[in-house]
Design goal:
The protein has 373 residues and is α+β, with helices and mostly antiparallel strands. The protein is built from 9 helices and 18 strands. The protein folds into 2 domains: 7-269, Glycosyltransferase (Alpha/alpha barrel), CATH 1.50.10; 281-366, Sandwich (Immunoglobulin-like), CATH 2.60.40.10. Strands 11, 13, 14, 16, 17 and 18 form a 6-stranded mixed beta sheet that branches. A 3-stranded antiparallel beta sheet has the order 7-8-9. A 3-stranded mixed beta sheet has the order 10-12-15, with helices on one face. A hairpin with a 4-residue loop joins strand 16 and strand 17 (356-357). The model has no long low-confidence stretch (mean pLDDT 96).
Length: 373
């Protein structure tokens, strides 16, 4: 969400899950149940991979908490076979001072973006991983000021006023962002607690004319640079995102409920009858998944009509399945894989409109190893 790295982040996943559920509602209202179900299925696919893609089990930031959300699992946009293990990978952090390290293990870089999972109604406020991740975020990113608490974007951030209080000029040190106080206020409200102290803190961070800054100073006062703890730095002011977060928090506090919570999302993922994670794996040309769990369904997607020519017994026999279309311009075939499947699935495409074969076989092997939740 900080527009600096590509990959899988809990905040982006939360937004996409919520958006897909809204799109499903639009499709249903237009009398297109097949497309509505497709959007719901894809939301379920993302939802049941949130932890697998963005929760480390090897965190080292806070003793005793090895399992927590990370800021982002870096994946190159053009990589069709990415390593999706969040315990792997190095994250490049922008705007670091010259000569300072700029690559860090992704598993040890955190932000509070996972709170959007609670905001939209995808995870409960007291989900154990959410709770542990908050402990890590507070230990690593929280700043206490005379005006109230504030938080850094993420650890190792180089975008902000320099160490001595001087201006950011291509590099510096990330300072505390008032909008993140608003984000935390929304979480506290979702947890049934009072958000008024967070509203008061945001108001205290504002300028004398009521403008909210992007960042506030987070260290001892530096009068020579007009830097005072909890007061605006030389960052952008007003920051419209911060004002929007403040307004939404005011509305949420008045309503006694998070304004951004989406009823259809919460009903699907937090309701008493919530089903177990839907066993769905998705193969696309830009994500050529290499393994799947036996007993799951493999959904093969493409952006044109096709017939899937496939085998589950090393081509001793083969079957064909025509793709189903959607109003989203995506066709798909579902392959139900039995729990005792041992052999990999092998398949290729016959493109029905041009009448030609893909000319390449693809493989998805069975994975019986421990499952990350």
């Amino acid at each position: 969400r900080w527009e600096e790295n590509s990959g899988y982040s809990p905040s982006t996943l939360a937004v996409n899950i919520a958006a897909l559920m809204c799109a499903a509602g639009f499709a249903a209202d237009r009398g297109d149940p097949q497309t509505a179900r497709f959007f719901e299925d894809y939301a379920d696919f993302l939802e049941c991979h949130v932890e697998a893609w963005t929760v480390t089990t090897a965190g080292a930031l806070v003793p005793g908490i090895s399992r927590h959300f990370i800021r982002i699992h870096p994946v190159a946009p053009g990589d069709p076979e990415p390593d999706e293990d969040p315990d792997h990978g190095l994250l490049q952090v922008r705007n670091r001072p010259p000569g300072e390290p700029f690559e860090f293990p992704a598993k040890d870089v955190v932000d509070a973006g996972f709170l959007e999972l609670v905001r939209y109604g995808i995870r409960r406020f007291d989900d154990p991983v959410i709770a542990d991740s908050l402990r890590v975020v507070d230990a690593v990113l929280k700043v206490n000021t005379p005006l109230g608490p504030c938080w850094h974007r993420y650890n190792h951030d180089g975008y902000g006023q320099r160490e001595n209080g001087g201006p950011y000029e291509g590099w510096g040190k990330g300072r505390a962002w008032p909008l993140l106080t608003g984000e935390r206020g929304h979480y506290e409200l979702a947890a049934g607690r009072d958000a008024r102290s967070f509203i008061k803190a945001i108001e205290g961070f504002a300028s004398a004319t009521g403008l909210l800054p992007e960042q506030v100073w987070d260290e001892s006062d530096r009068p020579e640079y007009f830097m005072y703890l909890g007061r605006p730095t030389g960052s952008a002011m007003p920051l419209m995102w911060a004002h929007a977060e403040y307004i939404k928090l005011l509305r949420s506090a008045r309503d006694g409920a998070v304004f951004d919570r989406i009823p259809s999302v919460a009903a699907r993922y937090l309701g008493q009858g919530r089903r177990a994670c839907r066993p769905l794996e998705v193969w696309t040309f830009n994500r050529r998944v290499r393994t799947m769990r036996p007993g799951w369904t493999l959904r093969v997607q493409a952006q044109a009509p096709f017939r899937l020519h496939w085998s589950g017994n090393e081509w001793r026999t083969a079957q064909e399945a025509p793709s189903a279309g959607t109003a989203a311009g995506i066709d798909y075939v579902d392959l139900s894989v039995p729990p005792d499947q041992e052999a990999p699935l092998r398949f290729t495409f016959f493109w029905t409109e041009p009448g030609r074969w893909e000319g390449e076989d693809f493989t998805v092997a069975m994975d019986r190893g421990p499952q990350r939740h």
